[in-house]
Structures are given as C-alpha cells and as structure tokens.
Amino acid sequence: MSVLQVENLTKDYGSGRGVFDVTFNVERGEVFGFLGPNGAGKTTTIRHIMGFSKPQEGVTYVEGMNSWLEPAKIQRDLGYLPGEIALPEALTGTQFIKMMADLRGLQNMTHTGELIAKFELEPAGGLKRMSLGMKRKLAIVTAFMHDPQVLVLDEPTSGLDPLMQDMFIEFIKEEKARGKTILLSSHIFSEVDATCDRIAIIKEGRLISTFVADDLRHSSSKTFKLEFNSKDEFERFRSEIEETQKLEVVSVKRHRNQAKVQVEDADVNGLFAIISGYDLKFFSEIKFTLEDYFMKFYDRTGSEGGANYAAN
Amino acid sequence: MFSKPILKQTLKANYKLWLIFTGILCVMSVMTISVFDPKMMSTMMEMLKDTPMAEMAGDKLDSMTTLLGMLSQNFYGMLAVILPMIFIIIAANSLIAAQVDRGSMAYLLSTPTKRGAVVRTQAAFLISSVFCMFLVVTVVGLSCVQLVHKGLWGEKFTPDAVAVSRILDLDEAEIGDNLSLILKNEEALQAGADARQIDPDVYLVYLNQKMTIKAYDAAAAALGKDAEEITKNPALLLQSPEALAAAAKVMGVPAEAYGAQLTAAIEQQGAMAAQSMELQNKMAAGISAAAEVLDVEASDLVNSMGKIKASKEALTAAATASGLPEENILGMINSQLAADELAYDDGIVFSVRDYLMLNLGAFLLMFAISGISFMFSCIFNLSKNSLALGAGLPIAFFVFQIMAQISDSLEGFKYLSLITLFDAGAVVSGGSFGVQFAVLGAVGVVLYAIGMNAFCKKDLPL
Question: CB A103 to CB B6 under 8 A?
C-alpha cells in the first residue's frame, strides 16, 4: 500500500484556480518531488493531504487513513513543514518548541536537541524578532522533532542561505536512507533533482507529467551544439539537413552560425559522419536538465516552436 | 476535550491585553464609587431638573441619587459595556481568524490535536477571561464600597444612629427600629443632630419624616399593600386596626393617639393642598426677597434654603415679602433640609444582591457579544472579514443603544441592539430582568456552538 495516496483530487477555487483530477501515489521510502511554479496547485494539494481542506471530489489518504475524516490521527507519524513560515508571535523559539513537543506528547527531547545542534538553531529569542532563515530552521526542527516516518515539505529551503540549503539537501538524503517517505514540493530544480526518486510536474492545477528522475538523468537522447566557421558552411549544413532529414535540429542561431541538434545515443555515429564534412568552430554537448524538461511543458503554452528558437 | 499546550500559548499571548482592560475597568469602577456622595448627587440632580440635559436623560436622573442607581447609569450603562467589548473584539479575532489568516494555525493542526479541541480551548479561554474580568471588577467594586462608604456587610447605620446608640446604650439596629426613643431624650436628639451636622430642629423634622415613612411601611406590610399607596392616601390606615397598631408602634405612641394625630394631619394636609398655589407664590416672593438680601440668585437659593435660616436679615426679608410668619418659613426650610437628609439615607443604601446582579447581567451581555465576535472569527479565514462583522456588529449595537437613549424619536433603535437586553436600570430599581438575562445566555450559547461547528467543518487555507 502506498504511504500517500491522492486520488482524483479536485478543488475548484473558481477562475481557473485550484487542482483538477490530481492523482499520484508516494511509496514507502520514496522521495517524491512535486514541481510547479507558484500558484500551480502544490500547496492546495498538500492542504488536502494534511486534512485542512475538504476535497470537492476525490480523496487523499495518509497511511491508508482518510485525511479529511481522521486529520488528527494522520499527524501522529507525519511531519509537516508549511510553505509560509508564520509562527505564533507571542512566544520565544524555546517556548514554541516546548509547545509543539507538548502538543505531540513528546517526552524525549534528545532528537530535538540533535536537530537544533545540526541546524545551528538559536531558539532563545522571541519569534517576532527572528530572521526568516532562523524561523525556517525552527519550523524544520519542529517538523522533524518526533522523527516521523512520513514528511510533507512545502518549499523547505526557501529563506535558507546556500550553505544551509546544501545541508538540508544532505539531511533529506540521510532521512531517505533511514527509510522515510517524503513529499517535497518545490520550484527549485536543483533540490528536486538532487533528492527525488520520482517527480510530478503540476501546471494550472493539473498533473502533466510524472516520471522517474533517473530516466531523465540517463536519457537516451542527447543535445549537441555546433558552431560553424563561416556563414556558407552553416547554410550548407541547413540545406543538407532539410533535404536528408537525418538529424533533428532543435534550434538555430543564424547570426552566430550555431545550430542545436538532438540525437539518440544509437544514432551518434551518424551525427559524426555528417558533421565530419563541415568546417566547425566548436562542438559541445548540452546537458539536459530537469529545468529543460520542466520548461518544455511550460514554454509550449504561448507560442509553439517560436519560443524554442528564441531560447538560448 | 481541551488542549493544555494551546491554552498555555493563548494565555501567554493575551494576558497583557486582559490585564490592561481589567485594570482600566477597575480604576473606573473605583473612581465612580469613590466620588459618589448622595447629598451632592441629589443637589446636583435638583439643579439639573429643569435643564435640557434632564430632558435628555429622562427619568434616569432620579435613579442617579443612589449609588447603585448611579453605577447602573454611569458605569454599567457605558464603560462596563464598551471596554470589555473592545477586549472581546481584539481577543476573539486573535484566537482563531488571525491565526488562520497568518497561517500559524497550521502548526497547531499539524500535531495530533483535533480541530474541536483547538476551538473549544479558545472558546473556553474567551468566556473565562470575560468572566474573570467581571469577577475582579465585582470584588474590587465591593471592596471599594466597603472602604469608602462603610457598612456594606450587614446593616448600614447612619452617623446619628451610631452617636445616639452610645448615649442610649442600645445597639444601632434597635435605634433604627425605635426612632421615637431619640425624640424622648434631649441629649440623644442633640447628639444625633451633631452627628449629622444639622440643627436639632431640622433633625426633629427629619426624624418625624423618617418615622412616618417607616410607619407607612409597617402599615403597608400589615395591609398587604404597596407602601406608595399608603403614602398617597394615609386614610387607608384608619380603616384597619392592625395597620394602625403597626404604624403606631413605629411612632412609639398608643394606637388611639396615633389615629387622632393622623386624622389631624390628613385634615391639615387637605387644607394645605387647597391653598398650595397661593402658598407657593408667597414662598417664591419670600425667597426672592431673601436672595436680594443675601446677594445670590433666587434659583440657587431654592435648592439651598439653609442659607436663609443662617441669616436673620434674610429670614425677616422673606417673612415680610411673603406675608407669612417667620415660623412658617422656618418650618418649610426645615422640612426641605430634612428631605435632603432622607435622600442621603436612601443614597447610602447599597444592595449587594443588586450589585451582583448588575455584574452578572453585564457578564451575560458580554458573553453574548463575545459569541458574535467568536462566531465570525471561526467562520472567516481573513482577519479583515472577521473583524468587519465581529467588531462591526457589537459596535453597531452600542451606537444604536446610545441613539435610542438620546432622543425619543430614535427610541426604535433599541430593538436593533442586543445591549437593550441588559437593562441596568431595571436591575437596581426592582424591574424584571430574568427573561432578558436568560435570552442573553441562550444567544451566547447558540453563537458559540455555531462558531465551533463552522470551524470544525470548513476549509482552512493553511
């Protein structure tokens, strides 16, 4: 059984906002990346998983328990890091940690102490005067303090300095190694790329792609950039390609005599056979990243193709 | 059921606000109670009687002459409503809506705490904070009455009763029941007058008036009628031997003698009433003449006729101008001064029960008002919406209440205000208020229930 189940979740906030028919599962021990820009519906989905909102249609389960019907039960072994850090201002950091421990019925504070040391948290001051980064660390500590098996993290690294971001990514990897199930919502490609086993891309409230991250990393198709030494060479290459259709040209930059071609690994010898007859200035592989993949979905909204040529 | 950690946090977040409002309320209560002086109040009300202000205040002026009456109009009609209301508006919003709006509610709900436990804890805090506010105000108020006006616990004794008790070697309660004893003892009469700082002849008139009131009360009790009815028509007394006996006992004379005395008094009263118009005109002329001699305004003198008595010249002038004998004028002055003393006696009467009822009523009103604010705080996710109704409605009630009081033509507004259900005047003047109190309590319970239910069922944008 999947740890997190989102089935046909629909919540229409009107004027196109909300989530529509979203379905995905997160398996035990998996880090699941939930990728999308602001307002795409990431937080709305998480809101339903946490049991804060009632689905219009569909249902969400945590460890087999219905989120809306048993919200208090699902929280026992779940750690939640909200996207917006809004801590109760009347307290100090220490009081807040104490309150969260009391609310969770947590007696043993050794793990909490370790987390505080790990994230270099100084919780003594009032929450009102704390920096955003410090508040974020405090929220991280309270989300992990009871060592939960399931973690729902909504944009966890925003507000952290780059060093802390790296440390947090390492921390997520450690937790994953300890068998934790993690849902990580983010719009930062590097952290999703670095941690996630599977990734879902959400756009305007709909899941548009769910894929295994390794497939993307070890894609069988590669993109190369070529620059020709002269305009003539460049034009000759273009006309040959147009005639033979042997290569797929993704984009061209006429004023620089550059072309980008996409080749399947199996056809890579054919590529060399063709370009050996031309006077080249340079030849390089363009690494295909998660960002490119993501942009592919988002760029095609406005002007098909045109945007592709404008890129780079 | 409730969540202790949340209660702890709520207390930490709100205790300062509570202390400030409770503190201000206590200070205002102490000030209102301390400055009260029944003699001064009755003089002031007398002065105000014919001014436009009196018209505006309506029949409230009469009740202002007692401490509870003044408290009910002044403190419980105004400050004890608006101050707790502001506290409630701020607290109710911060307890639920503001935490949802800011997002900090997410932390509470990301623990195994049920929504029901969160909202019940917050509701319990709001209700008990308002209750404790009035509890503190009540205790402080009672202590202040005790300190400033004395004799709150048990019967209250006037200074003359204390002075006389020493001379007659009786305790104050016995004196109160047998005022006629003072009349029979020269020394006691002098001591009583001194204690009240008035002339013995004024004191004599005062005692007679006081005894008459008590006699009528006793007779009314014997007849099973209202004391007011007897006061209007003392002849009723003569028809019942028991009533007459009861009254005579208070006056300290045999029943037959009192009967004769009363018959004569009733006749005399009739005669006086017949020529009262003429008498008043004569008296007015006399007062004007005296005012000229004393070089004060005649209208001022009407309220302080003691001045005429103090000046031989003024008295002579008044007698000459009015054509009445000096004794008559003196008699009238004495009876006015005695009436002041009676008003003073009334002013210091303080019913602990009525005072507790005032506070209970104010609490129930605030319970209902807090129900409004809390309900909207539960229903809305945005502070601004929660405040628009949760603060707007109570404030509108307050404004309607004031409008209804200001002018008769706006009186209809009182039906639009929940505050009308807490009629402080009715509480202290023996009016009915039980049903209204019950309605306030019921309104509060229903509103809290609706709010808690709404919070448990709604979508939270966390």
Answer: yes
